[in-house]
Design a protein that fits this description.
Blueprint: H1 2-5, H2 10-19, H3 24-32, H4 38-48, H5 51-58, H6 64-70, H7 76-85, H8 106-116, H9 118-133, E1 139-143, E2 147-153, E3 166-170, E4 174-178, H10 180-212, H11 215-241, E5 247-249, E6 254-259, H12 262-267, E7 276-280, E8 287-291, H13 298-313, E9 322-326, E10 331-334, H14 347-361, E11 367-371, H15 379-394, E12 402-406, E13 422-432, E14 435-444, H16 452-458, H17 463-478, H18 496-510, H19 518-533
Parallel strand pairs: 5-9, 8-12, 8-13, 10-11, 11-12
Antiparallel strand pairs: 1-2, 2-4, 3-4, 6-7, 6-9, 13-14
């Protein structure tokens, strides 16, 4: 691909040639199954005629892959067979004739001549019989009952007629005869189209079978053409959009400088795409926790990383200033929300099923892209599930895969520094003049706000709702945020102290202090002390 990228003359020539070569695989498949019509074979012949030009353009290539493509089988014998047989613009139907080109078959040409020039042939026969008999008023006629006949008027007198004349009908003013030649001509005139169409169909089917017998050769050539097409497409896109050649090795480092999302960048017509860096490895930067406002670009940032890794490993240039990509065995993604109503699975159930599959099949060489895990259930359940999965991904003894984890659970940011290999990043945004501005830039550290109300305002939610939301948010913040649980070493068993602590927490949260009497409060304190000492 690098050679095509650096060849501003060769690449456009190849693209023009490949533009005239269609889907050879599909056409040879139709031939094999016996469903190809005249237009299919004509198109196949047209495509095959472009192969010598493709091989000629790549003949001087330096790349081993391009030289291998240049050595393709041009299938000249198949192309010539089709060109000799099939008309340039055959009809869609195989039974209506017109499939074969003139000169492809002598019998078809003769039958077509009979079909198209029947009146002239009858006139020629009439002229010959007049000269043969000397009867100037002799005519060759036709009716639906007797077919073609030779009409000799009585005014001709007793002129002797040839022995080949066989009397057919006697009329007042004439006698009607027929001959073997006339009967043969009549048969051809009446059946010429049907006979020609039938023979054309037989010859076409024979050609289609000959082409189908070469399916292995055609498929091998088609694969070479597909390789050239893919390489040209990748090189052209890379040249137009200023992609760079990545460095791919067997390590575990993913280092991307000023990476961009190839699809989002191409779709943005009125704004510049903001590039971002990515750094992951299997040591101190295994897991990136990404926080930030809704719509700020967290999902785009993670997807662009996955796409750059994929593009690099398929041999493409990548949308970045530079890229070092360690070989990744698989890329797992859990992005977006969906449900499966037919099988009775909720959005959260689908999410958990997909996460279960990811955790079962991922390895330390995999790349995991996880977006908003745990959002489909209650806050505490979701946060607990998200944290447990994040710890599992980060733990080298269990998985230790490179992971990008986007979340609105800002409490998880406390894992940086306490959980090995975890780093915090956030997408920046700022408030200005009562509005929210997305800077689209990822920086180290965690976000301090999700700006959910500001995003709701941008979406057009009524002002009354926005005001109420701000009021409720202030009340919730005044009640005090719940502190995230401290990171604890991974262990297989839950201690009794943890169970007691959970029971105390549950009881305290369910307590309504405004309705307790002094005696009830004293009794409750005694029970809680018993639980703590147990």
């Amino acid at each position: 691909m690098g050679e095509l990228y650096d060849s501003p003359i060769l690449r456009p020539e190849l693209i023009l040639t490949l533009r005239d070569i269609g889907d050879i695989q599909r056409l040879i498949g139709r031939c094999t199954y016996g469903t190809a019509n005249g237009r299919d074979l004509a198109a196949l012949g047209h495509y095959l005629a472009k192969l010598p030009r493709l091989a000629e353009l790549l003949a001087g290539a330096k790349s081993p892959m391009l030289r291998d493509i240049a050595a393709l089988d041009a299938l000249a014998d198949i192309q010539e067979d089709i060109a000799r047989t099939v008309a340039d613009d055959p009809p869609f139907s195989l039974r209506e004739g017109g499939i074969l080109r003139p000169g492809a078959d002598e019998e078809v040409d003769r039958l077509r001549n009979v079909r198209d020039n029947g009146a002239a042939m009858v006139a020629q026969l009439e002229a010959r019989e007049r000269e043969r008999t000397g009867i100037k008023k002799l005519k060759v006629g036709y009716n639906r009952v007797f077919g073609y006949y030779i009409d000799v008027p009585r005014s001709a007198g007793d002129v002797p007629l040839p022995e080949t004349y066989i009397r057919k009908q006697t009329l007042v003013s004439s006698e009607r005869y027929f001959t073997t030649e006339l009967k043969e001509l009549e048969n051809e005139l009446l059946n010429a189209k049907e006979l020609a169409d039938s023979r054309e169909y037989e010859l076409f089917c024979a050609l289609r079978e000959r082409v189908a017998a070469q399916v292995a050769r055609v498929q091998a050539t088609s694969e070479r053409v597909a390789e050239a097409d893919a390489l040209c497409s990748l090189a052209e896109v890379a040249s137009r959009n200023h992609y760079v050649m990545p460095e791919v090795d067997t390590g575990r480092v993913i280092q991307i400088r000023e990476g961009r999302h190839p699809v989002v960048e191409a779709s943005q017509k009125d704004a510049l795409f903001v590039p971002n860096d990515t750094f992951l490895n299997d040591r101190d930067d295994r897991v990136a926790i990404i926080t930030g406002p809704n719509m700020a670009g967290k999902s785009t940032y993670m997807r662009q990383t996955a796409l750059i890794v994929l593009m690099a490993q398929m041999g493409s240039f990548v949308p970045a200033k530079s890229a070092l990509i360690g070989v990744t065995d698989r890329v797992f993604t859990r992005i977006g929300a969906s449900d499966d109503l037919a099988s009775g699975q909720s959005t959260f159930m689908v999410e958990m099923s997909e996460m279960a599959s990811i955790l079962r099949h991922a390895t330390a060489s995999s790349l995991l892209i996880l977006d908003e895990i745990g959002r489909g259930t209650s806050t505490y359940d979701g946060m607990a599930i998200a944290r447990a999965m994040l710890e599992y991904c980060a733990d080298k003894r269990r998985l230790g895969a490179r992971t990008m984890f986007a979340t609105h659970y800002h409490e998880l940011s406390a894992l940086e520094g306490t959980l090995d290999g975890v780093k915090n990043y956030n997408i920046t945004a700022k408030k200005q003049g009562g509005s929210l501005i997305f800077l689209r830039k990822i920086v180290p550290g965690s976000a301090d706000d999700s700006y959910g109300i500001e995003v709701a305002k941008l979406a057009g939610v009524p002002d009354q709702v926005i005001k109420k939301a701000k009021q409720y948010l202030a009340e919730l913040e005044a009640s005090g945020p719940s502190a995230p649980p401290a990171a604890v070493p991974s262990q297989e068993q839950v201690s009794l102290a943890d169970m007691a602590g959970s029971e105390l927490t549950r009881r305290l949260r369910a307590l309504d202090t405004d309705t307790l009497t002094p005696l009830e409060a004293l009794n409750l304190l005694y029970k809680l002390k018993k639980i703590a000492e147990a």
